[in-house]
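Record format v2
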Amino acid sequence: MDLAIETHGLSRHFGDLRAVDGIDLAVPRGSFYGFLGPNGAGKSTTIKCLTGLLRPSGGTTRILALDPATDDLAIKRQTGVVPEDQALFERLSGPETLSFVGQVHGLAKEAIGRRIGELLALLDLASAGGALVADYSHGMRKKLALAVALLPAPTLLFLDEPFEGIDAVASRQIKELLHQFVQHGGTIFLTSHILEIVERLADHIGIIHHGRLIAQGPIGELPGAAGHASLEETFIALVGGNQVERPTLDWLL
Amino acid sequence: MTAAAVRALAWLQWRLAVNGLRGGRRRDTLERASRWLDVLTPVVMAVLAVPMVLLLVVLGGIVGFVLARGGSGSGTVETVVSVVLVFPLVLVTLRPIFRAGRGYLERSDLVRLLPIPRSLLFNLEFVRAAADPAVLLFVPALLAVPCGALAGGAGSLALAALVAGVVFLFVLVALGGLVVVAAQLFLRDRRRAEAAALILAVGVMALNFLPQLIGRERPARRVSAAPSAGLSHGAPGQVPDKVVLPAGLRVLPSSVYAAALGRAASGEWRGSAGGLGVLVLVAAGCYGLAAPLQRRLLETPARSSRRVRAVRQGTWALPFVSRATAAVAAVQVRTILRTVRGRWGLIAPPLFGVFFAFAFSRPSGRHSPDLFGSPLVMTIFVVFIALQSLAALSANQFASDGRGLPMLFLQPLAARSLVRGKALGIGVLQVVCMVLGLLPVAVLVRPAHPSVWLAVFLGGLAAMVVLAPVAAALSAAFPKRVDLSHWGRSSNPHATAGLVSFLASALAAGPPVGSVLLSSGVLHRPWVAPVLMLGWLAIAGAVAWLMLPVAERILLNRRENLALVVLGD
């Protein structure tokens, strides 16, 4: 199988904490891969390791059949990232931010202008004009981060909670766009807490829990999926959500 | 309910302070050391403040003692008290305005949503104002005055001084609280707060130069043997009993306090009580005025005004520079110019140039032409200031990008493009700073030999070139999360980076200064200076060329740590 992302024993430790503990990811090219896990499971740390923001403590990684240790720049030319932390310059405007990304990727001036115009219109950011990102709302920042990831026309997208804070209209447009992106051969590696979105968009799922990959595969063939009506039920069953005894909050209810 | 809220808020302050000292879990040894060094800075400042407090206590004791004993020195003492106590007044007034940038209110939003009485929140602003270091620094001194009076054998004066001291503290706290509330209300708009901070920074700098400018204009006033408007008592040739302050200063609470003390010392109890009454009214007025401002603050939503900017994509095309490097340089210039700290860096050199030119250009009646009066020294000094004015940003050039830095790291940018692009961007601004700083000196002061001007400029360029890799390496090794919308400690680089950067600047300035002084002062052949400077510029370029790969290597090794620092992990 032709893999866009392939890791063997990928791990990242912070002192005694094993945030990512030897995971073996296999993300097929042209797939929409939903990467799920409870809060603090290691999703964002995994994405940071895959995108080069964090150095793995161990294991091997290949992105688009390239080794990040030696082909860092070649990988970055083919990938787009929407990080969890909205990595944007506060003191640049949206068009300036996108223009910078286009220049760094070596796009022609005309192409940069056209792509910026279309992305801003699609994501409903054109009305912000030349306002600085410092004055953007949370949702606008998320949209701009998505525009930054899309502008260089990557073949692989890493999206960490891309729908967080985005209104329903824009969310629908983005979902359609991402769907078309995959249909045209692109690969998406997405984390989201909204399981309905993942269920509707993704064709492959990976579930991480306490830094370990506990399930991976096509959405209908996930180990443990049998007998569960929805991805949510499968997910809760796999991470042991049913077995945890929780306080009843009798003082509230 | 109120007691519980007070306890909870006190606990909150304590936890925030303690947690602020704890690093994230993702720190390596260098970062932990770097963090502790940064934490040590305020501790060192607090230790350094001890002698200042002791000095103020001794001064307060002397004031009380002299007033108790009476005599010719009382008037001078009164003036000294008036002037010294202007400092806490200025500090409690200006500090909240400097701090009122982005994020100032966000921290207290959670507290506002909790069921805490408004009156308690209101009074907390005054408790915070009372805990302002500017106030705390002067409390022992104000209490030392009655002690001194008691030592001088004047019990009733000691009592009056104690009451006056307490009343003056009330004024400081009430004024501080009022300014904090007003700043939160009027400066909660990011752009307005940043504009206020910048205007204030320029104003404070102008005030620093004011005594020099005034002294130059009125050279003979203080030494006049004849009684004048400036002296209230004393025969010709005698030490003046009292220097009359300008009218503007006399109405300040510090002067009213000093006058109340003086009147109490001379037995004018009614006049003294009147002065204290005025101070009580001022404190009550500040407190009363703050109440409606706070109500408005709580009841109106914060708005952020957006400046209508033209949509620009702004690309830079520079000869001999790759597009990626040029793009990084352009972003560096834009982001610096859109912050308070960056704008201040650009404004400071021409302001210094203007003030130096005005203050030291023409020999006055009182001053002989001094060292700073020399056009040569003035140009060297202005160039040094131009290089230093952006040092805070160059010594923290990576972390000062904030969340923009991870974006840079996610782009296909080699360390080489990143380091060189940033060096280029900062360099462009430093050249602009040098030119803007030298212009007023050139226009207002009799110029030195043209070759000296050229030499000084080339020397500045050489220093800039040789310091670029040093600043990049320091920024990569000692990053600090900063807020450049402030002017002060929160926008300063890491203490270690700042100190090493300053020392490196002083070292880099050595060869140019030495060459210029040698050619002009010793050899008396000014044309030699630019020739020497061209040689030094070539050497500096070669050194920088060799050092840049080292800085790039340090950046590569510290990339992860840099990203974690700016993301606050």
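The longest helix of chain B spans residues 29-69.
Chain B touches chain A at residues 25-26, 102, 190, 304, 306-315, 323-324, 326-328, 330-331, 334-335, 338-339, 401-407, 409-414, 560, 563, 567 (CB under 8 Å).
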